[in-house]
């Protein structure tokens, strides 16, 4: 998979997340809060994968590292992907870390 394909994947998940803002739910089997958490995980993993694929595609490692260092919210050892993956679930419906999403009630 190329960097552009992975960016398209991230864009898809971002658009689904945006759609979730306007609807009660995207599925029949999951609560809106769970859907938001799943989509956030997919978005964060896509962002991470872009940087890994970039290194494999010949982009200089120092350029990738500089990019990651300039976006610590996503890529640092205390960034939201690391916290979600290694520590706890990011409850977007409670904390609303991006201000992107809200629910009724």
Report on this model:
With 105 residues, the protein is mainly alpha-helical. It has one domain. 66% of the residues lie in helices and 0% in strands. Helix 1 packs antiparallel against helix 2 and helix 2 crosses helix 5. It is elongated, with a radius of gyration of 15 Å.
What order do the helices and strands come in, and which of them pair?
Layout: H1 3-22, H2 32-56, H3 61-69, H4 72-75, H5 80-86, H6 92-95
Helix pairs in contact: 1-2, 2-5
Task: For the structure shown, list the relevant keywords.
mainly alpha; 6 helices; 105 residues; disordered C terminus; elongated
In short:
The protein is an all-alpha fold and 105 residues long.
Distance between the termini: 41 Å
How large is the radius of gyration?
15 Å
Q: Topology as H/E string?
A: HHHHHH
Number of domains: 1
Overall form: elongated
Largest sheet: none
Mean residue pLDDT: 78
- Main structural class: mainly alpha
Helix content: 55-70%
Number of strands: 0
Please count the helical segments.
Answer: 6
Q: Spans of 5+ residues with little confidence (pLDDT < 50)?
A: 92-105
């Amino acid at each position: 998979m190329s960097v552009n394909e992975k960016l398209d994947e991230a864009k898809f998940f971002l658009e689904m997340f945006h759609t979730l803002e306007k609807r009660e739910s995207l599925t029949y089997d999951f609560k809106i809060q769970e859907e938001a958490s799943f989509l956030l995980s997919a978005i964060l993993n896509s962002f991470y994968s872009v940087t890994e694929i970039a290194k494999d595609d010949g982009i200089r490692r120092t350029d990738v590292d500089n990019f990651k260092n300039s976006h610590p919210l996503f890529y640092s050892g205390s960034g939201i992907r690391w916290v979600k993956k290694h520590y706890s679930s990011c409850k977007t419906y409670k904390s609303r870390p991006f201000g992107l999403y809200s629910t009724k009630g």
